[in-house]
Amino acid sequence: MAQKSFRHSQLIAFNNVAAGHDGVLSDRSGAVVIKPCNQAEIDFYHSTTAHPHFALYIPTFIGTLTLNSDPEAAAALTQQTAPTNLPDSSQVVPLSEAPKAISHAPIVEKAWTPSNGGRITTDLAIVLENIAASFKKPNILDVKLGARLWDDNAPPAKRVKLDKAAEETTSKPLGFRIAGMRTWYGSATADGNTNGLSPDGYKLYDKFYGRQFTANTVRQGFEDFFLLEKDAIAKGPLRKVINRFLEDLEGLKFVLEREESRMYSSSLLFVYEGDRDALENAFVAEKEEEDPTDGVDGGETHEESDDDDEEGKPAVQALKLIDFAHAEWTPGQGKDENLLHGLRNVIKILDGFIATK
After folding, report:
1. H or E element in which residue 164 lies
2. Phi, psi of 280, deg, nearest 5
3. What phi-psi label fits residue 30: left (phi over 0), alpha (psi between -120 and 50 degrees) or beta?
């Protein structure tokens, strides 16, 4: 069974964070995200094995790390086999027959010691797939869901603070707000002018960017994410990308409308290929893959493993629900309308980019 070692010297700061999440790390391959977390989030990821339809819409849960104060601690080992909580969509049973038993993803203890940067204040970290790893230039958007952002355990002062933030942003009227994003524009101009871009050609939008919008102006944030002009209708490959996001959002909505849960301050994470040439090539590769004559040469079919196909397949877009520090299943309490309200409004806005005028 394949294993991977996460040593302190092999871990680096994770730069593809669209919003918040100080102290997030990755390995040098960029294949995983190592995020400081609380025990509640770990428990929630474990619990998703009993909710296989929901598990399709969250990042693959690889395991956990316990941050050890011993600088000579052994390297952390985590299983790299396919996790049990994320079944292939073709293998998911009907919602009415979802399994009741919960099996646990691997837990890794005695991990490396973080530096004294003061960024990690917990001994726990969760190891997840990096859904942006397969993109050449990933454009990333974090949309925080919910008009109510605190759970039942929040102290009164925190409830007041978060309610105020919701009142002053789109969280209250729409049930979501843009928490941050990064979009790729390319390198600096010939005269060296960076046009406010990062050294790697990205324009970065922090949490304050999303707080400026109202219910009437928030479409502009999505226009910036998709690099569209004001009131424009998406065309070409970008239209296909948005259509796929809509398919994923509708699928997630379908699942959440049939679950009984409460998820406060969870986010939708949107990723799509920001390099237009790479995006077009990805669509071409998909079309070639769908061609029934593909792989036939002189009457012989050349078969390759599914794993090899997936690893080499160019990415177009991805959508996942993330951040479950304040999430739980709540049997008997009905669906999570707080979350669904925001999800439905995001769908309405994306619909506007493909609607025919």
Report:
1. helix 156-167
2. -65, -40
3. left
